[in-house]
């Protein structure tokens, strides 16, 4: 009889009816038991957490080819309680800061933040094996981290990210839909080409016609004054020790093209702040410099974000500039892309549209418990994800807001809707005094 009881108990354990996993005494025990963690240290994080650790996970360079070795990936693990949900923050770039995300505060949750592969020090031997920088590999990285912590936390899991981190959130969820219960991507584009033309259509229709005309006229003025403004541009380059791979002349034109996108992305656009066309050269140049950012085209300045551009040109898409809009003012023609950012040996890399098409099919047909948040005037919302009626997904645009859109700056009635959706999906009651 006793032997039969032992066999029955063993069967229950094997089938998962009884768990042999014990709740750890401290988060430190979790860290010490994670085989994939190469090293860790305690860091001073947000005081809302009981403890915060910086971990270095060993990840395969290529999840389909373990023989290529591993690389270290930075993860920040912040614990509040085993009886609370877990917010997974998926960075699209390097990992900056250790504080609470907006969702972590709202849901009073634990938080795990994952740096994206091949940014900052999360790369093999300070070099980047570009062919392994894929959406699939990045999602597998995140899956490994989540699964490592999953046994210890039984409450709801929520993934989130902002901008490219929002894209990363969508990509990961489409490939590993059961890793988390809810996903909240912020201002996350879903582009279908290296120069998605929907962005140009957006710039041609956003806001008011007078505002758009004022922006266009300012760009034309910059090109008409190129001879007198170029010395200012050259001085900026000299003072900052900038190097433009495409040359100063082309860099100037690209910065003019970028002006409209940058303005709609970041500046509340009533267009009243744009200088009149009879403003002085210094006034014109200063405004352009303030709201465009010339270093966006400078090779040393963009070095830390080259993985973003590589992904944009190969899998996740980007936007381009319609140079024909300024015909007669520039030597460039057609749709100008960001191919100048591609690393040596990959100059002829081609965009694979099927990667994003596959994500789009999932978004439309299977993407449940997805809360997409966008700024109504953000240029990146031109290519917002479009969930289909087969899902319960919710997409909300924040009127007259841009890439800085967060839950806290939505109008009250929309903010209440967001709270209701989150409460329904997570089971966590959200207080009004966040």
Would you identify the regions where 5 or more consecutive residues have pLDDT less than 50? 1-21
How many alpha or pi helices?
A: 13
Classified in CATH, the superfamily of the largest domain is: Alpha/Beta hydrolase fold, catalytic domain
Biggest sheet character: 7 strands, mixed
Radius of gyration, CA atoms, in whole angstroms: 24 Å
Provide the CATH top-level class of the largest domain.
Alpha Beta
Order of helices and strands: HHEEEEHEHEHEHHHHHHEEHEEH
State the secondary-structure class.
alpha/beta
Structural domain tally? 2
Give the proportion of residues in helices.
25-40%
User: Which topology of the largest domain does CATH recognise?
Assistant: Rossmann fold
Number of DSSP strand runs: 11
Strand content: 5-15%
Question: How would you describe the shape?
Answer: globular
Strand order within the widest sheet?
1-2-3-5-4-6-7
N- and C-termini, Cα separation: 58 Å
* Residue-averaged pLDDT: 92
* CATH architecture group name of the largest domain: 3-Layer(aba) Sandwich
């Amino acid at each position: 009889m006793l032997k039969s009881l032992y066999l029955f108990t063993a069967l229950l354990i094997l089938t998962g009816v009884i768990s042999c996993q014990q709740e750890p005494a401290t988060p430190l025990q979790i860290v010490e038991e994670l085989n994939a963690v190469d090293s860790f240290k305690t860091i001073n994080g947000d005081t809302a957490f009981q403890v915060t650790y910086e971990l270095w996970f060993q990840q395969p360079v290529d999840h389909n080819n373990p023989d290529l070795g591993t690389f270290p990936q930075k993860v920040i693990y912040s614990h509040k309680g085993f009886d609370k949900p877990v917010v997974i923050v998926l960075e699209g770039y390097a990992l900056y800061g250790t504080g609470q995300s907006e969702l972590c505060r709202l849901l009073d949750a634990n938080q795990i933040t994952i740096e994206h592969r091949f940014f900052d020090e999360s790369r093999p031997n300070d070099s980047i094996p570009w062919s392994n920088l894929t959406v699939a590999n990045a999602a597998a990285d995140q899956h490994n981290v989540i699964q490592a912590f999953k046994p210890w936390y039984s409450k709801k899991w929520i993934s989130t990210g902002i901008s490219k981190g929002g894209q990363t959130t969508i990509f990961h969820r489409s490939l590993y839909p059961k890793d988390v219960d809810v996903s909240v991507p912020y201002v996350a584009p879903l582009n279908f080409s290296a120069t998605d033309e929907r962005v140009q259509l957006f710039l041609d229709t956003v806001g008011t016609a007078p505002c758009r005309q004022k922006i266009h006229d300012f760009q034309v003025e910059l090109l008409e004054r190129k001879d007198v403004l170029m010395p200012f541009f050259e001085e900026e380059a000299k003072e900052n020790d900038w190097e433009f791979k495409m040359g100063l002349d082309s860099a100037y034109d690209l910065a003019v093209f970028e002006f409209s996108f940058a303005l709609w992305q970041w500046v509340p656009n009533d267009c009243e702040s744009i200088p009149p066309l009879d403003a002085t050269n210094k006034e014109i140049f200063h405004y352009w410099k303030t709201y465009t950012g010339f270093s966006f085209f400078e090779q040393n300045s963009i070095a830390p974000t080259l993985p973003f551009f590589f992904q944009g040109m190969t899998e996740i898409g980007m936007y381009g500039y319609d140079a024909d809009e300024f015909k007669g003012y520039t030597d460039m023609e057609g749709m100008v892309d960001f191919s100048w950012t591609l690393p040596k040996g990959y100059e002829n890399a081609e965009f694979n549209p099927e990667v994003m098409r596959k994500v789009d099919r999932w978004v439309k047909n299977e993407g449940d418990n997805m809360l997409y948040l966008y700024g109504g005037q953000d240029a990146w919302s031109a290519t917002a994800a479009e969930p289909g009626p087969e899902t319960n997904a919710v997409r909300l645009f924040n009127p007259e807001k841009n890439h800085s859109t967060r839950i806290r700056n939505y109008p009250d009635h929309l903010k209440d809707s967001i709270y209701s959706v989150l409460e329904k999906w997570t089971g966590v009651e959200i207080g009004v005094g966040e």
